[in-house]
Amino acid sequence: MSDTKGKIRMISVDSQPMFRSGLRVSLAAHFPELILVGEAGSVQEAKTLIEAVNPDLILLDLDLNQESGLNLLTTLPATDKPVKIVAVTQTDDSEIIHYAQQLGVKSFVKKTGTIQEIISAIKITIQKDADSDESFNDLEANILTSVGSEEN
């Protein structure tokens, strides 16, 4: 297993294995400061994974086939630190989006979005915490800078 020290540790929760695989490869190529430490295809798998790896960030599909990603948010396991959440969604339903925000989602990206849009959503999520959380660390600030310069 690769070294995760000094990196943003993320898990991906999506019911589509091909999406998770493509995300893993794309993030490794375009966002080396972020490391995917686990993947889950269901709410129960995600709960187990969160407890095991204590991620910094969750990329969560709100539509997990037979269940809603919102169910994970309402029963999120306790962790050592606050977990940042980026939602991947196909919905435009403002009620669902508002409810997800109430449950802690900081950023949203369309499921049909590009890897750059996903990286931007992650960046926005990190920045939102930077603006409101004194525990924001220098590594996350450096990631924001490097991602911003790569987008230009």
Characterise the protein shown here.
- There is one protein chain.
- By secondary structure, this protein is an alpha/beta fold.
- The protein has one domain (8-147): Response regulator (Rossmann fold).
- Helix content is 47%, strand content 22%.
- It has six helices and seven strands.
- The chain has helices spanning 17-30, 43-53, 70-74, 94-102, 115-132, 138-151, and strands spanning 8-13, 34-40, 57-61, 63-64, 67-68, 84-89, 105-110.
- The strands form two sheets. It has a five-stranded parallel beta sheet with strand order 2-1-3-6-7, sandwiched between helices.
- Helix 4 (94-102) links the parallel strand 6 (84-89) and strand 7.
- Helix 5 (115-132) packs antiparallel against helix 6.
- The chain is globular, with a radius of gyration of 14 Å.
- The model is unreliable at 133-152 (pLDDT under 50).
Question: Which features does this protein show?
Answer:
152 residues, globular, 5-stranded parallel β-sheet, 6 helices
Summarize this structure briefly.
The chain has helices at 17-30, 43-53, 70-74, 94-102, 115-132, 138-151, and strands spanning 8-13, 34-40, 57-61, 63-64, 67-68, 84-89, 105-110.
Give the helices and strands as they follow along the chain.
EHEHEEEHEHEHH
Alpha plus pi helix count:
6
Per CATH, the architecture is: 3-Layer(aba) Sandwich
Taking pLDDT < 50 over at least 5 consecutive residues as the criterion, the unreliable ranges are 133-152
Strand order of the largest sheet: 2-1-3-6-7
- The domain count comes to 1
- Rg, rounded, reads 14 Å
**What percentage of residues falls in helices of 4 or more residues?**
40-55%
CATH topology: Rossmann fold
Task: Calculate the terminal CA-CA distance, rounded to whole Å.
Answer: 32 Å
- What's the CATH first level? Alpha Beta
The best one-word shape is globular
CATH superfamily: Response regulator
Largest sheet: 5 strands, parallel
Strand content: 15-25%
**Structural class of the helix and strand makeup?**
alpha/beta
